[in-house]
Amino acid sequence: MTNYLKRANELAIANIEEGGQPFGAVLVKEGVVIGEGVNEMHIAYDVSGHAEMIAIRRAQQRLQTDDLRGARMYASGEPCPMCYAAMAFVGIEDVVYSASVEEAAASGLMRSQEIYEDLKKIRTERVLIQSYQQKIGGLSPLQVWKNK
């Protein structure tokens, strides 16, 4: 376990040296590394280019599956809400990380902590994004899905 977390931290440090942020991730299933990633937002200008997202994407492509149950994520930092949600969607139930969201915020990387705090609020009290539900007439995509 320690070796995978050490690898995630090594990836993160190398990413800093290449102009990126201090995030690296290693995804392991049954003792085999199935995906690795670093924060690539500075390269691809893609908001989903977080280390965990890259590791998940690579594992899914490698294994040709949307089901990564039984895999464990090792990350240099506690996953942000987007990465946390992605892990939940693919069935990853276990993550080991080095630095907490609070430690990241103390280092100047505050957005994850801000988002986690905003998500704790009820919809009408959230401040980062205002969302509104609006119904329209016609066939609903969810009705189509339910009836298929």
UniProtKB/TrEMBL annotation:
PROSITE patterns with a match to the protein in the record? CYT_DCMP_DEAMINASES_1, CYT_DCMP_DEAMINASES_2
Positions of the CMP/dCMP-type deaminase domain: 1-126
Q: Which Pfam families match?
A: dCMP_cyt_deam_1
Question: What Gene Ontology terms describe what this protein does at the molecular function level?
Answer: hydrolase activity; zinc ion binding
Record carries keyword Translocase: no
State the InterPro entries in the record: APOBEC/CMP_deaminase_Zn-bd, CMP_dCMP_dom, Cytidine_deaminase-like
Q: Which UniProt keywords apply?
A: Metal-binding, Zinc
Tell me yes or no: is Zinc among this UniProt entry's keywords: yes
Q: What is this protein called in UniProt?
A: Nucleoside deaminase
| Organism listed in the record | Savagea serpentis
